[in-house]
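Batch manifest, entry 17 of 40.
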Amino acid sequence: MKTSIVTTRASGVAALALIFALNVTPASSAQPVPECSMSMTLADWGENSSGDIDVASGQSCQIPIGIRGTVTDSAISQKPAYGKLKKINASTFEYRAKAKYKGSDTFAIKATGQGPKASGTSVITVHATIK
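Output type: structure tokens
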């Protein structure tokens, strides 16, 4: 009799431990990357644009392609000199400023798309101020 009670208690504790293990989700340390503080005037598809962003040294921010319509393709056409630029998806890029660097940086994104009035390929040149 005593053996079955101990076995039952042990299996109950194991089941309880398994339930807690399945219900506990680890806290994610990755914070969402905010949108860059931007000042841009975007032209229509097929026309080139430029703009300015502000970002803290060593920090990153996202740059959405804000031309009206649908982005069908995009790529980095000029890499930044003092940071890293990576494509998240066809309409969003992430810029990370070099740590301990303060000054300016420039890069360009080439995007193709179609809007309500025009379609084509545009180059968006971004001037970054790293603080």
